[in-house]
Amino acid sequence: MLETSARLLKLLALLQTHRDWTGAELAERLHVTSRTVRRDVDRLRELGYPVHATQGTGGYRLGAGAALPPLLLDDDEAVAVAVGLRSASDGTVAGIEESSLRALTKLEQVLPPRLRHRVRTLRGATVRVGTPGEAVAPDTLMAVAEACQRHERLRFDYCAHNGATTVRTVEPHTLVHFSRHWYLVAWDVDRADWRTFRADRLTPRIPTGPRFTPREPPEGDVATYLSHQLSTRAWPYQATVLLHTSAEAATPNIWPGMGVLEPIDAGTCQLQVGAETPDALVWMITSVDIDFTLLSGPPELVTALRAQATRCHRALRDFPAQDHD
User: Fold this and answer.
1) Which of 32, 47, 153, 197 has the fewest CB atoms within 10 Å, i.e. the most exposed one?
2) Which residues lie closer than 8 Å to 25 by C-beta, 6 or more apart?
C-alpha cells in the first residue's frame, strides 16, 4: 500500500483527468478500501481541492475552485505546457508575453532534469522564422471565442485593410490561428454570406446578440475555406497560372495558404495565388519551381515578370560559361 502522501498525490492525479470516478474504481486503482478513499478525499478537501460527490453513482469529480490549486502533470503534459508557454511568450496575443515567461520560469524550476533537458533540447533545435503578426488583445479573443462557443450573434467594429471602418453583425463559427494572424470565420448576417475577419482589426460590442443555430462550415471545412480566402480573394493582386505538371506532383511545392491548386489533366494543373504586390506574386509563382504559363493577372504582374526575367538574364551576362562533361 502506498504511503498516505504518495497516495494523495496519485488520487489527485486521477481526479485531474477530468472524468467521474466511482469510489470502487478509485479504491481499485489505489489498492485500498473505499473507506480509505473517502478519508483521502476529505484530506484533499481540507487542502482546498474542490472534490465533489456525484449524485447517483457514489463517485467523485474534481471541480473548479476559487483559486488555482497545484496541478499534477505527466511527462508529456509538462513538456507540452512548457513548449506552449514558450510559443506564447513571443506569439500574437498581446499582453501575455511577460505572464507566459513567468509561468515558464516557474515550470522549468520544478521540472525533473530529464524533462528540463527535453525542453531545452527542443528549444535549442528550433528557430522561429519571420516576425509575428499584429497582436490581438486577450479580451478580444475571449469575447469572440465565447460567442462562438455559446452560438451567440456578435456585433463589432471592423477596420478593413484600406482603413474603412464598418459595424458588422455575424454568426461566429470558428477562430483560426493561421500564418501569423488570428481570423474569425463567420456568417455575415447583413451580407448573407460567409466572411473572414482579422481578429486584430475587430472590436467587439458587448453584450452579444441572440443565440442562433450553427450552420454547416463553408466548403465543408473551415481551414480549407480560410486557405482559399487568404490565397486569392483577400489580396489586391491576383493571378492564375498553368503549371506544366500534374496536381499530385505540384502539391509538395505549395505550402498551406499559398494558393488554390486545381487539377486539369495528367500533365497540367492550375494555381490561383494572391499577394500584396506584383513583385510578391512573382516570387510566389517562381518559388514553386515548376514551368508555368500565365493565364490571367494584372498588367503590373506582366511588367514585374519581365523585369525579373531581365534581371536574371543580366545577372548571367558576364558569368563564364561552364563546361559540362
Assistant:
1) 47
2) 59
